[in-house]
Amino acid sequence: MRGSINVTLLLVLLSAPCLASSRVKEPYANRGQTLPKHTLRIDDGVYWPLPRGMFELTSIKVGGERDSDARFNAGAGFGLLEDLELGVHLIKYGNSKLDPPAFYGLYRFLPKDVELSAYAELTPRVGHDPTLTVGVPASFHLGESVRIDTGPFVLFPFETNVDAVFIAPLQIPINVSREFFLGPEAALTWIEFDQDVYSAGLFVGYTIPGDAGPFGDVGARFRLPNVDVGFDAVQVLAEFQMFWDF
Fold first, then answer.
1. Does 59 have pLDDT greater than 90?
2. Residue 116's pLDDT band (boundaries 50, 70, 90)?
3. For residue 9, with 0-12 CB atoms within 10 Å meaning exposed, 13-18 middle and 19 or more buried, which class applies?
4. Cα separation of 218 and 243, whole Å?
5. Rounded CA gap, 66 and 50, in Å?
6. Burial class of residue 104, CB neighbours in 10 A (0-12, 13-18, 19+)
7. What is the secondary structure of 119-151 as a DSSP string?
8. Cα–Cα distances in Å, from 105 out to 19, 79, 117?
9. Quick one: residue 35, left, alpha or beta (phi over 0 = left, psi -120 to 50 = alpha)?
10. What number is the average pLDDT over the span 14-40?
């Protein structure tokens, strides 16, 4: 598995010089929900309903001691049409094992200052525990520097004791300059519409400029996955994505 991770990182580094021209020209907070037509994004997994990190470190305090878990994620999305994006969360590695990949589709049916899309993500998990996530991502553009991302999502973890999980995320990207962006995040996770878990965090990022537009973003995210336990459970995420036009 270590060899696969090294190959992925090598491809990222070798591809970077080719990405200096991209159709993704807007600052982070002013971008649309779907990729432009025939644009490839190499990333750390799907943005919806909650962003992942290429590298994730989770620290949990148990009995006065902390236990840490590190994860690695890699994926890709492609703008098949102007309002249709397809993609895959290809690598999900943690706890010394590789989890099955997930496949998603995002169709934007309202491409205005208020964007609405239909979203579906399937993790086949051949042989056991397939999962399906469906939702309606909503983005509200407040000028060119502020965007609010939210929307209802429902996760169906088949072949488990949990029937459904409702997720309501909230992200507010704010561009303080054309390259730098930051903002708060929060989410409600409602397990079987009975047990609720609230998360909260902050993120900061930088858009790497290219000759004709940005070709990538790097960032970091700090998250409390359960605000009820406070800093006994924390997550630190390193984010990365880049774009390639065809």
1. yes
2. very high
3. middle
4. 12
5. 24
6. buried
7. EEEEE--TTS--EEEEE--EEEEETTTEEEEE-
8. 24, 10, 10
9. beta
10. 77
The phi-psi region of residue 171 (left if phi > 0; otherwise alpha if psi is between -120 and 50; otherwise beta) is: beta
Q: Largest Cα–Cα distance in the chain?
A: 53
Cis omega (within 30 of 0) for bond into 49: yes
Triad 114, 212, 112: Cα angle to 5° = 10
- Asked if residue 178 has pLDDT above 80, the reply is yes
Which helix (H) or strand (E) segment holds residue 72: the answer is strand 65-81
Average pLDDT over residues 212-237: 92
Round to whole Å and give the CA distance between 132 and 109.
Answer: 21
Does the pTM surpass 0.85? The reply is yes
Locate 17 and state its tokens: 């010089």
Amino acid at 174: I
pLDDT of residue 214: 64
**Structure tokens that stand for 70 in this block:** 């590190």
The CA dihedral of 163, 153, 52, 182, to the nearest 10 degrees, is: -150
Contact 69, 58 (CB under 8 A): yes
Mean pLDDT along residues 169-180: 97
Total count of residues recorded for the chain: 246
Residue 65 Cα distances to 60, 69, 126, 233, angstroms: 8, 14, 36, 12
> What pLDDT score does 20 carry?
43
Residue 198: in which H helix or E strand, if any? strand 195-209
Opening angle at CA 232, ends 231 and 234, nearest 5: 60
